[in-house]
Design the sequence.
């Protein structure tokens, strides 16, 4: 694999449930463990109240 080509992955977290916070904590763990030399992570959050999908930085 070329060093300039990273695999883009989406990490989706949150949601309209009692597990919202746990999902966000888990997503942070996945993001931390991801090899950033091989992967480009896109973090997407789902709001707790309205269920809107939001692209996070």
Sequence:
């Amino acid at each position: 694999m070329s060093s300039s080509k990273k695999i883009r992955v989406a990490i989706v977290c949150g949601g309209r449930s009692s597990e919202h916070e746990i999902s966000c904590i888990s997503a942070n763990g996945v993001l931390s463990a991801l090899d950033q030399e091989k992967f480009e992570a896109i973090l997407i959050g789902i709001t707790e109240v309205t269920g809107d999908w939001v692209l996070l930085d």
In short: The chain is about 25% helix and 35% strand. The two ends are 26 Å apart (CA to CA).
